[in-house]
Automatic annotation (TrEMBL):
InterPro entries, per the entry: Polysacc_lyase_14
Chain ranges of the Polysaccharide lyase domain: 44-276
A Pfam family reported for this protein in Swiss-Prot or TrEMBL: Polysacc_lyase_14
Name of the protein in its database record: Polysaccharide lyase 14 domain-containing protein
Length: 294
């Protein structure tokens, strides 16, 4: 039987079989035949392959019909589920690091963007869909953007320093270090803007994300490394309002979208994932904020 394994810092493992993957679904992606274990396209061993069918985006199939209720065809949009390791879930953790590697198929068309896994905590159903202004949860997925640029895409409370608009304006005016949503969707943190810092098809990238929630209504920290280079370190961000919100695991989420039809302007394509690890080990981080190229 084939398995996906998530390694935890105390050598425990979270394991699920591909054959029972529907038990992992959060309800928004019920057709998960997008997932397969295949040989590494640029190495050895098995890796997790994700299939994105031509034209799909968020909750829509290749014909633009809502999935799965009104869909007239397959809904191979990617995959989405929560990983809740027993050593982390409901353990009151306020710090964790997520590591994994991602590979985009040669010729991968990034269109205008799509999601990648990140950490999450709190009430699960509040952390999917356009659920910014999150009061009972947080999530810190990544996004790829046009031409392979990338960012942290966070669902966070709106009670930031001086109010959400003031906080957003301060960062947006400072080289667009943060781009805030026009609707209650995610907040974009640290979008890269140079060719030196973007995903390129046909090679593996090592991702490491650290989240320190801090105290409720006080500053936490989000840090991102790509290929061992720190690209984002933000430490003036409120990540939770309640002491009941903790880090509960990984939100495995990958698809094209947003809802705009421009997200669906891509052909059949694949990404690949391997070497997932969730740990409480910290990497050294300098005290100041940092946004690469900003």
């Amino acid at each position: 039987m084939q398995h996906i394994t998530i390694l935890i810092s105390n050598n425990m493992c979270w394991i699920t079989s591909i054959q029972t993957r529907l038990q992992l679904s959060d309800g928004s992606y019920t057709d998960t035949d997008s997932l397969k274990l295949v040989h590494d396209p640029h190495g050895s061993g098995y890796v997790l392959q994700v299939f994105y069918q031509s034209g799909t985006r968020t909750n829509y199939d290749t014909h633009g019909h809502s999935c799965p209720s009104s869909s007239t065809g397959p809904c191979h949009r990617g995959a989405q589920f929560y990983v809740m390791p027993p050593s982390l879930y409901h353990k009151g953790k306020t710090f964790a690091a997520l590591e994994y590697e991602v590979f985009f198929k040669s010729g991968f068309n990034f269109a205008i963007g799509g999601k990648l896994p990140g950490l999450w905590g709190g009430t699960r159903d509040s952390c999917k869909g356009c659920s910014g202004e999150a009061h009972s949860c947080f999530s810190t997925r990544l996004m790829w953007r046009a031409d392979g640029h990338y960012e942290v895409y966070a669902y966070i409370p709106y009670n930031q320093d001086g109010g959400f608009k003031h906080w957003c304006d301060r960062y947006e005016h400072d080289h667009k270090k943060v781009i805030c949503p026009a609707t209650t969707c995610g907040t974009e943190i640290g979008l890269t803007s140079t060719d030196a810092f973007k995903f390129k098809p046909g090679q593996w990238y090592r991702i490491r994300q650290e989240v320190n929630l801090g105290h409720p209504n006080q500053h936490g920290r989000v840090t991102l490394w790509v290929n061992d280079i720190m690209v984002v370190n933000m430490n003036s961000i409120v990540l939770r309002q309640s002491s009941s919100v903790h880090i509960d695991g990984m939100f495995f989420s990958t698809f094209y979208g947003g809802k705009s039809t421009d997200f669906g302007k891509h052909g059949d394509t694949y990404s690949y994932f391997k070497n997932f690890r969730i740990t409480d080990e910290k990497k050294p981080v300098h005290s100041g904020e940092y946004f690469v190229g900003k």
